[in-house]
Amino acid sequence: MANPPDRESWDDGDAAEYVLGTLDAEERRAAARLQADDAGFAFAVRAWQGRLDALTEGLVEAEPVDPPSVVWPAIAARLPGGALGARTGAADAGAEVIELRQRLRYWRGTTGIAAAIAAMLAVGVILPRDRWAPEGLFPQPPAQQAEAPSDAARGTYVAVLQPGGAAPAFVAEVNLATNSISLRPLRPEPAPEGRVYEMWVVGGGRAAPVSLGLLAEGGELPLDALAGPTDGSVLAVSVEPPGGSPTGAPTGDVVFTGELIRAD
Amino acid sequence: MRVATDARSELAGLLAETAKGDQSAFAELYRLTSAKLYGVILRISRRPDLASELLQETYLKIWSNAGRFDPERASPISWMAAIARNRAIDAIRLQSERISAAAEELEPEDGPGLAAPRHGPDPADAMSLRTCMEGLKSDDRRMVLLGYLYGLSREELGDRFALPVNTVKTRLRRALAALKGCLDGEPA
Fold it and tell me: Distance from B42 to chain A by nearest Cα, in Å?
């Protein structure tokens, strides 16, 4: 695709290799641009997609693999209205979740707000205190005194953990400055008799779920395992035998999930 | 073919509802198709650590582009798989280096691409592609299949076939041009 800068030239082989997937990175970027800008190239690409379509059919039938159970909640959370919670008539709690999300988006787009302030607002403003279900199951986390964080460590993430389609159960706040996760119980269901809740982080480039600890041990978890949380990471809570998963991976049902959203 | 046809029209219906913003139809679409697309992404990307994220992005794109699906031009599952495949190839070509190992056990001669065409949206299409693929030189056919089904780059193909990258390019284009002539011209 060597050509004058104002107009890229192409031949049908470029379109064919674009569909085949064998172009190198630079050529592939150029082809994507052409597809958007040049109707003729876009047409040639569609024609090649049609020619090779029968191969796609074989590809999808070859080796289906069930994706991890947390993928769908993560997708649903990114649909308009935060999806699951908003659709189920979980009325007031659902509305709180939506409002929380909207405010988080606003804060994400706002510069100059200190992480500690954003974190305080994220939990304090949106979720009325009387909803924090002050039963003994999950002790209230101590008020956080964020010591002046280093710039590198600054950052707060929030996840609203909810069972599929029902009201939120917890708000988890990940504070990189204090290296901790705080859990605010909203309407937690106690773990089944003789079982415990274990929290995991998945996605965000991790190969497998990483345990963050047992919820029954307190309202605050150390953050050691949560290296580099990113948008796209999901917190999940599974039901495990006493002492936690014996295998290092979730063994019981995943009962709550929530996407980590940057709050500052 | 009845089962395949029913499944196809069900997916097409779910895509149409999804295009109108129906999230429960989209959830059902995910339930019915996610294992297939996840398999595609794993196979192409060979990056289990990225596959969940790529699957998320794939379905979000399906959600936003569902209105562009044209049942006259593609089957629902191959339209969706093309999005998954494209996303996975973007990820491995544009974003990261990939462990280039898995190609050893592949036997594309018997690969899924040349499986019996009963899965195809239109058996005649699958049959004619199969026929045209069989008309290619053996190595050329394998290059096309390894590229399409396993996401191998020219460089990886060059390693595999002990050929310079430019030769791989030349042969790929020759093979693709021959395929085009066969598919678009008289049926063989």
Answer: 8
- Give the gap in angstroms from C-alpha B36 to the nearest C-alpha of chain A: 4
Under 8 Å between Cβ of B172 and B143: yes
Cα dihedral sign, A13-A15-A21-A27? positive
pLDDT bucket at B118, cuts 50 / 70 / 90: very low
Task: Give A-chain residues touching B23 at CB under 8 angstroms.
Answer: 76, 79, 83, 87
Residue A3 located in a structural domain = no
For A75, which of B24, B56, B94 is closest by C-beta distance?
B56
Are A68 and B144 in contact by the 8 Å Cβ rule? The answer is: no
Distance from CA of A229 to the nearest CA of B (A): 14
Does the distance separating the beta carbons of B120 and A16 come in below 8 Å?
Answer: no
Q: Which residues form the domain of A205?
A: 71-262
pLDDT digits (tens, 9 = 90+) for A89-134: 333 344 444 444 444 444 333 333 333 333 333 322 222 222 333 3
Taking the Cβ of residue B126 and every Cβ of chain A, the question of whether any pair is shorter than 8 Å is answered with yes
Chain A residues within 8 A of B147 when measuring between CB atoms: 20-22
Asked if the Cβ–Cβ distance from A57 to B152 is below 8 Å, we say no
Please tell me the least confidently modeled range out of A187-196, A215-224, A225-234: A215-224
Is the domain B102-184 a CATH 1.10.10.10 member? yes
A2 belongs to a structural domain:
no
Nearest-by-CA chain A residue for B56:
A75
C-alpha closest to that of A100 among A73, A118, A76: A118
Inter-axis angle of helices B138-150 and B165-184, nearest 10: 90
Q: What is the pTM of this model?
A: 0.56
**What string of H, E and C letters represents the secondary structure of B3-55?**
HHHHHHHHHHHHHHHHHCCCHHHHHHHHHHHHHHHHHHHHHHHCCHHHHHHHH
Nearest to A233 by CA among A190, A262, A256: A262
CATH architecture of B2-95: Orthogonal Bundle (1.10)
* B38 or A53, higher pLDDT: B38
State both tokens at A80: 């308009």
